[in-house]
Amino acid sequence: MKIITSKNLFLVLCSFFLIFLHETRIEATELQPNTFHSYLRQGINQLMGRILFNQEEYDRSVEYFQNALKDTSFYNARVRVWAFVRLGMIHDIRKQRNQAQEYYSKALEVEGGEGAARIEAQKYLINPYIPVQAKS
Asked: Which of 31, 66, 97, 129 could form a disulfide with 35 if both were Cys (CB 3.0 to 4.6 A apart)?
């Protein structure tokens, strides 16, 4: 299990968030102050969920992904799609295929959530997610 110290966590989150902003092509200056804070908060929820997911701390990561889903604004569409996909992946890991498929379907329903997450949702809707270490 990889542990990220609190000393490095801030730098890790900032780096991930800058990459996230670049990938979503949204500039901070385009958003109103309250909107940007919400956008930042949901992005951090998504990133923390992903970090915990990668550390196989699925119960804790679910909390962050659920929080990322709370903002249903258009600018948060990609965050929501990824949160739905990761929640589906967690249910596949737990052998809860019906719930996993529900989350993948929800990911595909998000308007404005185009991109890699939708491709992943389509893939896992057909074939369950299997973690890399479990494939061998």
From this structure: 31
